[in-house]
UniProtKB/TrEMBL annotation:
Similarity remark: Belongs to the EamA transporter family.
Name assigned to this protein: DMT family transporter
Keywords: Coiled coil, Membrane, Transmembrane, Transmembrane helix
InterPro entries, per the entry: EamA_dom (IPR000620), EmrE-like (IPR037185)
Pfam family, one: EamA
Keyword set includes Membrane: yes
Transmembrane segments: 12-32, 38-59, 71-91, 103-120, 129-147, 159-180, 192-209, 250-268, 280-299, 305-324
Coiled-coil regions, chain positions: 329-358
Domain EamA: 10-143, 247-317
Phylogenetic placement of the source organism: Bacteria, Bacillati, Actinomycetota, Coriobacteriia, Eggerthellales
One GO CC annotation: membrane
Transmembrane helix recorded as keyword: yes
Superkingdom per UniProt: Bacteria
Length: 360
């Protein structure tokens, strides 16, 4: 395997680890007595703090890179969209069904693939389209949009506001992946630092809007990680106050922020630099598999046959994309190596000819 293929494979590994870590947020959230947007804020703010500490203690050279790297609109909007994709998703779950919200945010990778094809000329062939189609279909099975009883996507007008917010979260997700393909010259650590900063600021603004819409921030009441419902079947909520959060919630909030925020988003910054939008899309749905596995292991949430089929489709599509992309990168690398070898041989021949001429 040549260097180009190794580089591509490394990007896939980063994306796989990132999406797997993101998939754990649902499991963590069940043990945090706090609004979802505050949890989203922690995923970015703790990431910003952690990366700043790493820069100060173990990687001081990055502060110099921060000062010397020109802050461009692409870097600013990358952070803003990172904050919007997670914050808007959380708000949408409060105003529409969970299946609707999940489906709408996962339309994001499709948008990024289309935008990259139009504006960045990132070509996607039939094999790539087939891989993306497989993982998207698998996602529809896993999040419960496609069931044995039919489609569960609820277009009832009462969910219109929540569906629009969910759609915007998907657009933000797609724009984040797309804009991440710009400023490839920027160091990934520096990019992550700015992403965490602007995402944190963005989510603070969303929390203020959410508080106004909801008459104050609220959190869902849970017992042993299970959401409680009232006699009418509605999810029970309670007013939230940051000063009355219990110790367990704080500890889990920090753990969730480090794993599903700092680690996941930091690795994603590397992956967006190394992979094309279509390649990112094919691996991003691994998040749904991890969420389902954690639900099964931690909460005995049995996977339906269709969900198992969905997981198999996502794995098959993702593995196929990795195979096709690394193979193509390997061929491109071999071509570059041959061209370099030809240039070196030609240079050596010219040098020998010059030496012969000098001896005559």
């Amino acid at each position: 395997m040549n260097e180009q293929a190794k580089y591509k494979l490394k990007g896939f590994i980063f994306m796989f680890l990132s999406s797997s870590a993101m998939g754990g947020i649902g499991a963590f959230g069940r043990y945090i007595n706090a609004p979802g947007d505050f949890i989203s804020f922690g995923r970015n703010f703790i990431g910003f703090i952690a990366l700043t500490i790493i820069f100060a203690v173990a990687a001081r050279g990055n502060f110099k890179k921060l000062r010397t790297t020109k802050l461009s609109p692409a870097m600013v909007f990358s952070g803003i969209f990172l904050g919007l994709l997670s914050g808007l998703y959380v708000i949408s779950t409060q105003y529409t069904t969970l299946a609707n919200a999940s489906f709408l945010i996962y339309t994001g990778p499709i948008y990024s693939t289309v935008l990259a094809a139009i504006f960045l000329k990132e070509k996607i062939n039939g094999k790539g389209i087939a891989c993306i189609a497989a993982v998207v279909l698998g996602m529809l099975f896993i999040v419960g949009i496609i069931t044995p009883q039919g489609l569960t996507l609820d277009l009832d007008p009462k969910w219109m506001f929540g569906n629009m917010i969910g759609l915007l979260s998907g657009v933000a997700y797609g724009l984040y992946l797309f804009i991440g393909r710009y400023r490839q010259d920027c160091d990934s650590n520096v990019r992550s630092w700015w992403n965490f900063l602007f995402a944190s600021i963005t989510i603070l603004g969303l929390m203020a809007v959410d508080s106004l819409l909801s008459g104050g921030l609220k959190y869902t009441v849970k017992v042993n990680g299970v959401q409680q419902v009232d006699a009418a079947g509605q999810i029970m909520t309670a007013p939230w106050d940051i000063f009355t959060m219990d110790v367990t919630s704080w500890l889990v909030w920090i753990a969730a922020a480090l794993i599903t925020g700092f680690i996941a988003f930091h690795l994603l910054a590397y992956a967006t630099k190394m992979l094309k939008a279509g390649e990112l899309a094919a691996i991003s749905y691994q998040e749904t598999i991890m969420a389902s596995l954690l639900g099964f292991v931690m909460f005995n949430e049995v996977l339906t046959p269709l969900q198992l089929v969905g997981g198999a489709l996502i794995i098959a599509g993702g593995v196929s994309q990795i195979f096709f992309s690394t193979k193509a990168a390997s061929k491109a690398g071999e071509k570059i190596e041959k061209e370099e070898e030809i240039r070196e041989n030609l240079q050596a021949r010219l040098e020998r000819e010059e030496e012969k001429e000098a001896l005559r």
